[in-house]
Design brief:
- The chain is built from three helices and no strands.
- By secondary structure, it is mainly α.
- The mean pLDDT is 75.
Length: 125
Amino acid sequence: MTYSGTIEHTTSIMVTEQLKVEALGAANIFESLLYVMILIFVCGGNLLVILAIKQTPALHTNTNIFVVNLAVADFLIGLQILQRIIQKMTPELALSSVMCSFRYNVSVSMTCCSRLSLIGKFLTV
């Protein structure tokens, strides 16, 4: 009697673990889809700003130079979401400590560039 109870208990634990893995997989897919939507909006919007200023001669002003600078910095920050999507979809491709450090430093540099562009635009207006 004890033996069959142990098998049932072990089987229920295995089923519970399998359900956790399936739920985790669904959560990863949902999170990745959310990241893809953010990537499209961030990069697409900033690309439209850059193209609008480039194509319209009336927008070639000193103030809009800061707007383009800000759009480029935000576009590059948005591209970092792509790395996060790849990391979510393929967790077996873990980054080394050197690459993690590099990614962190690039992220901080681009964020500082974006903030400084915003401050420069504020001071010129």
